[in-house]
Amino acid sequence: MMRVHVEGLGLLGPGLGGWTASRPVLAGLEAYRNGATVVAANDMLPPAERRRTGVPVNLALAVGREAFINAGRDAGATATVFTTSCGDGETLHHLCETLASPERDVSPTRFHNSVHNAAAGYWSIATRSREPSTSLCCYDASFAAGLLEAASQAVVDGKSVALIAYDQPYVEPIRSARPISGIFGVALIMTPDATRSSFSVLELEFVARSEEATRMPDPGLEAARAGNPAARSLPLLAALARGGSEKLILEYIPETHLRIAVSPCR
Fold first, then answer.
1. Residue-averaged pLDDT of the chain
2. CA distance 165 to 149
3. Rounded distance between C-alpha atoms, residue 68 and residue 166, angstroms
4. Angle (nearest 5°) at CA 224 between 117 and 262
5. Mean pLDDT computed over 165-172
6. Cis peptide leading into 173, omega within 30 of 0?
7. pLDDT greater than 80 at residue 156
8. Would you place residue 64 in the very low, low, confident or very high pLDDT band (cuts 50, 70, 90)?
9. CB 125 within 8 A of CB 65
10. Which residues partner with 186 through β-bridges?
11. What residues contact residue 13 under an 8 Å CB cut-off, 6+ apart?
12. Is the per-residue pLDDT at 254 higher than 80?
């Protein structure tokens, strides 16, 4: 079992415009209203880099910044774990189109944005961070894998770690083979020990896959959870929004799930 503390969150998703605004909805105090995810153009990067970024990078930077603001922590002095199932699917689509055409010259910018750690690279530029960064993928379990990696680093290294998860739909024809709904991003700042900003404690452990994964009681939020790998975080976010003590299950790799005990800091 691993134990970490949470001291900041960031969130953008369908009908969820930031962690602070979304807490009453996730806690069940206000009705959920579906809507488009609004990802504003970022102002964290210099103009030249800003022109090269697409939705996934802007999404990752936006939720990451909100989490650090809420935590009151220096983003440039914190290790990061980026996790996404699909990366920049639109860029991958354009690369495939180019390679299937007679003119096979790939745009350097497109190629640069296609690599899986593109968001991590832009983040390091935006925050001037030289701290370690990990970028990973685990299909529908990408959030759970990222959470496990970030918590492991916090516990083993004894330092704060930011987890940033993000996913957006592919375009056709890839979308038919790998359907992902909505645009969703979430960020959590975790520490091995409690700080003045800590508000919740997470205890993570593996359990057999026979246990049922936790679902959202609201049909709209459940559709979002089931349709986007990054949104598999919603049961955890809802527990954090409620602020009490509870246990939940997140889907992980075959034959294994993650059980998370959530409790308030005392």
1. 93
2. 12
3. 16
4. 80
5. 94
6. yes
7. yes
8. very high
9. no
10. 11, 165
11. 22, 37, 182, 183, 184, 185, 186, 224, 228, 231
12. yes
